[in-house]
Amino acid sequence: MQKMLDELKIDPFQDTEFSPGHNACPGCGSTMALRIVLDAMSGTPAVFFVPASCGSLYFGPSDTTPVHFPVIHTIFAGAFAQAEGMGWALARRGRPERVAVWAGDGACYDIGMGGLSGIAARNANVLVFCNNNEGYQNTGGHESSATPAGSGGAGVSISDGTLPQPPTVRKDLAEILAAHRAPYVATASAAFPDDLSAKVKTALSITGFRLILLMTPCVTWKYETRYSVRLARLAVETGYHPLYEVRDGKTWSITYEPQRRPLEEFTRLQGRFKGVALDAIRDEIEEKWEDLHFKASRPATFRGATRSEPVERNCS
Amino acid sequence: MVARAPVMDAAADVRVVQAPRLLNGAEAMGVAYWLAGARLAYTFPITPQSEVIDYFAAHPDIRCIQADSEYNVISGAQGVLWGGERCALATASQGLILMSEVMWEVAGNRLPMVMGVFSRGLKGPGWCLGTQQNDALFYRDTGWLQLYCESAQEILDFTLIAHRLAERISLPVMVVGDGFYLSHELEEVQVPTAPAAREFVGEPRRESIPVDSPPASYGALVPPERYSSFYQTMHRDMERAAADFEDLSAEFSRLFGRRYALTSGSWLEDAEVVLVTAGAISGTAREVIGGLREQGQRVGLLKLQSFRPFPADEAVRQLASAGRILVIDRNISPGLGGIFAAHLRAALHERRITIPVWGMVAGLGGLDVTPDMIERAIAYTAQAQAPGTGPLFLTESGIG
Known about the structure:
The complex is a heterodimer of chains A (about 325) and B (about 400).
Chain A: H1 2-8, H2 29-40, E1 46-51, H3 55-58, E2 71-74, H4 79-92, E3 98-104, H5 105-111, H6 113-121, E4 127-132, H7 173-178, E5 184-188, H8 193-204, E6 210-215, H9 228-237, E7 243-247, E8 251-256, H10 264-267, H11 279-297
Parallel strand pairs in A: 1-2, 1-3, 3-4, 4-6, 5-6
Antiparallel strand pairs in A: 5-7, 7-8
Helix pairs in contact in A: 2-8, 4-6
Chain B: E1 18-23, H1 25-35, E2 40-43, H2 50-57, E3 63-66, H3 70-82, E4 87-88, E5 90-91, H4 93-98, H5 100-108, E6 114-119, H6 134-137, E7 145-148, H7 152-169, E8 173-178, H8 181-184, E9 187-192, H9 194-201, E10 217-218, H10 224-256, E11 263-266, E12 273-277, H11 281-294, E13 299-304, E14 306-308, H12 312-319, E15 324-329, H13 339-350, E16 357-362, H14 371-383, E17 392-395, E18 398-399
Parallel strand pairs in B: 2-3, 2-4, 5-6, 6-8, 7-8, 12-13, 12-15, 15-16, 16-17
Antiparallel strand pairs in B: 1-9, 7-14, 11-13, 17-18
């Protein structure tokens, strides 16, 4: 037990950048990741933009805040460009604050995707954290394009055989942003805190657009809350959520080679997968890992300066 | 349209503070933002505003960020404002409406944004390129101020005044000009020199911004009591904005010699019919009424320079001795009629003034409002028995 606590760096008496007393659900996988992220950012002045999401609530209602930097709450799709704009204004003033967005899959995959793609295409100096709990969980668990087929509430399409089938794969946001040639795109998990912390620090050493995509278990997935950490770990160990980095859309590195445990070990703990056929998801995982291994084995071949090299922080 | 002779302030500064140039409204807008110290611009092309992008970009010290949509133009600009800098942005029609969610947020956040709009009809039944005021008027209830321009000169001057006004009352301001008429037509514009403009607009960098304050959350969940009192406060601040505009206009006038007010009346003293207008139509109206006056007809003109705050007190005071009032609206609220007319009727009624008001809707979709149409509208109003309910439609072929 102590070994696990040490591994996960959980110490109830430790100082943390994310103060207890916030109003996230018990067992929230998102705030678990947020705590690790903020501790990795400790000492870095920052300003966070938080679009409509669970974060709109657990960063506290008006007049309260559990963190030590300004948090600007925004409408759903607008956080990305707002962060970009503030970044330019702060740069003009020679300010050191790093600008970040803490968004969910709803904002990143769907309603805000145009804006996210826009700032990635413009290589805005913004670090986006997507805490992906695979659906619009704050409002009741309806599916987003990050939701695995069949597991989301409502919105399930019925096909009569003549029309196109509903999608069976989750949108692959990391690859989409890698295709934008973003300086740095990484996937991470709170169950692998050292990997996550390292990725946060790497992201902070780079300017330009960066995204860290977190798989964050959510109690809306219908599981006993004590399983949050286990589910975060199983998401990775089953291969369902790979841990990797892509730089400049050209170099893939797998940062953890999972055990590839049976998918059922992950899904059977969650009510949302009850009665859901898993074959499509298993296929998706197989294909993803084949693709990832291939990309990770390719030599980096590119000309010109890499945008992911650390550069001077003082932008004027 | 006619470049209007400015009301000269006798105490106007005698230094060289401005020089005449031949500009259209788009260039006047671009120059005004630069003079106001905006060094960041968020852009997206849309007719009839696209050229404004080029006028921002013509200044090498303005960093222009072309966003992926107008939603992200105003989002980006809001971010710039959060960072305490001024931001140049302009749009029209579809782009303006696409911004709608963020418009509420900017006003709610009490950010002093200034945005240029060249009004254009919305799609709607089909694409419409011509001017109509509905795109801007749509934002009636957001807390944004709206100033309506008659000329490229007013676009330039109001953009400068708007920056001071917005920062004084912490509410955003829209500067509106009729698309094509004001965006594309050339006129002689007095362009302030950079030092004179800087003297007026002041330091383009706000001191109190989130990163300078103790860590706090901005715009988080508010309970009903707070939300409710917030809008009451916004309402009171909007009411006071008229006095602030007066103040700043006086200051502007001492430097540049042009004196503005939220309403501008001509030939009102003994007018039997007063025509009330907003926007570019005002210039045509002035030509027509000047001519009618020369023929001995007792007609007056009241130009409204703002929609929010609606200059109710000033307008009603200036209309007090009018025999009849005719409002020409270049907009329509289906089922109601012209929007300026509806506001004026309410203002008169609130103050128990029973002067009859005719409301006519004209120039939708950019249709020309000709001097002849205006003359016929005035004649109609002078001879009519009493105004009916609902609007009349004024076109080149008649009134009905």
